[in-house]
Amino acid sequence: MFRQRTIKSPVHAIGIGVHSGAKVRMGLRPAKAGSGIQFVRTDLDGANSVRACAESVSDTALSTTISQGPINVATVEHLMSALWGLGVDNLFIELSAEEVPIMDGSAAPFIDMINSVGIVDLDEAKQFIRINREICVNQGEATASLKPYAGFKAGYTFVADHKVFNRYPKYAELDFGTTSYEASVSGARSFGLLKELPHAQAINKCLGSSLENAVGIDDDSVVNEGGLRYHDEFVKHKLLDVIGDLYLLGRPIMGAFEGYMSGHALNNKLARALLRCDDAWDVVSYELDDQSKPQEIMVKRAAAAE
Fold first, then answer.
1. How far apart are the C-alpha atoms of 221 and 219, rounded to whole Å?
2. 264 carries an active-site annotation
3. Are residues 174 and 264 in the same domain?
């Protein structure tokens, strides 16, 4: 049986919010099976938690924010992506401010935090969202879709006509049955054009952005010392974001994602569209037979899924 997972013991970090520029303390704590991923604002009194949920997404301008009433948690996508990559289903995430720390702009520091304390299997079966038919959404020229697939794979086309971007791959497709998320995707960092930073800061975004947490691009080159971590780092960061945004569905997907120019808004639109289409998905678990082959077990039809 593929079982739900959490971390073995608490772990902590301090960083800054990339948009707020504010210092934030973050603690990750184990949670029992069935708890899901829950963010807890330790700086607030009373009801102070927000469950990671696609339907709780309240803002998608340059990052993904989730909300429960007046309680907001911003920039959740990189941490959610890391949790998907490690198969963590249940976790309490304590924050001393509104925004998840940006760390180095990728998911790798979150991976390292969790690996430093280890992961433990729980007694309950892991649940997956199995895609039964294609779901597709669009916004202008941008599109995002999910199709049936035995496993999970993701493809993305990055569109940007710029001297620097044109030197690097703009399409990537990874089958995570044969590709390591940790090795191939988790280190891909946020990126941006230096000339666009003043405008973002004028609308109170990217106030904590620096070359320590993003790839900076001028008119002719990548300005970070050491350059890119992957030759296709730009498009792989887009895939990293997609994975984090889709993990807000609460369970990993068994299916194939394809995105063209999609961002946080369209990723969330796809997740919400999926939830509305009861015939498009089911909740399943898997057990291993005597030959160690996964055998599917129906947990819930979509119409009855939580």
1. 6
2. yes
3. yes
